[in-house]
Design brief:
17% strand, alpha/beta, globular, seven-stranded mixed sheet
Length: 271
């Protein structure tokens, strides 16, 4: 049996309870007006076209080509860290196109993140990728306070920094190397979506790096779909569920809102 199965026993009950208890729980929705959603997506895609000087047809071609290039690069890499460090030149351009579309598809987070990151605090996006979600929300003034973007350094960061400069956010948004970032007890909230399932020592990264960054009472918005994709090694899930990461989450965080069907698809509060 997969080690995460014991944590999934009551998932359907928990999710059903959340649906009932939140039936009349109105969140401040950014996307009540469809035109706002269209504007958010249009700005994100337009910035990609502008930065790489490509047209929309080329953009969609790159989105379609990324899975083949991703597999090619993955098979040529010794480990996940080396794989992400190689996202340069053409690989970074194709990934930016594909990851922009992927993050635009995270529609539920487009209302959940602003709801929990609403105070004038300091927030982080750990494993931000193109930061289309978090930086896009900041550009549209849906995340208050300051935002720190954290990821493995490669050419994707140049595109992210271009957007920070374009929207004059240098005083409120910074891009940092996730590997060497060592600030502790700094953040009022951390966004960590689709990150830990890529990391073989996921428990160590979660316990020793991510958790110490969050203030007591701060929020953690966490999703990790784990298995079933090329860049999701089984060792990442086995490590998190079998080497203490999941237990540590249960001990040090309170689940405050479940928005998915998996065990790790929730908003947590550090206690």
């Amino acid at each position: 049996m997969k080690p995460e199965k014991k944590y999934e026993l009551f998932n359907s009950i928990k999710l059903k309870y959340n649906v009932i208890s939140n039936k009349f729980y109105k969140r401040d929705s950014f996307f009540q007006d469809p035109t706002e959603s269209e504007k958010f997506s249009t700005i994100a895609i337009w910035d990609v076209l502008e930065y790489y000087k490509i047209d929309i047809e080329t953009f969609w071609k790159y989105v379609d080509n990324w899975p083949t290039c991703e597999r090619e690069l993955w098979l040529r890499s010794k480990n996940p860290v080396e794989f992400y460090l190689k996202w340069n030149d053409r690989y970074s351009m194709l990934n930016v196109c594909a990851n922009t579309i992927n993050q635009l598809a995270w529609t539920k987070y487009q209302t959940i993140v602003p709801y929990y990151f609403s105070n004038n605090g300091i927030y982080a996006d750990f494993g931000c990728g193109t930061a289309t979600l978090s930086l896009g929300l900041k550009i549209n003034d849906r995340i208050k306070g300051d935002l720190i973007l954290l990821d493995i350094p490669n050419d994707v960061q140049d595109y992210v920094k271009y957007r920070i400069n374009k929207y004059n956010l240098n005083g409120h948004v910074k891009y940092q190397d996730a590997i060497n970032f060592k600030e502790n007890f700094s953040f009022d909230g951390i966004l960590c979506i689709d990150v830990l399932e890529h990391i073989e020592n996921s428990s160590e990264v979660f316990i020793e790096k991510i958790v110490p960054m969050i203030k007591k009472g701060g929020f953690l918005i966490l999703r990790a779909p784990w298995r079933g994709q090329l860049t999701h090694p089984d060792s990442a899930a086995d490590n998190f569920y079998g080497c203490g990461g999941r237990q540590f989450l249960s001990k040090h965080f309170k689940e405050v809102f479940r928005f998915g069907t998996t065990d790790i698809d929730c908003v947590y509060k550090k206690v």
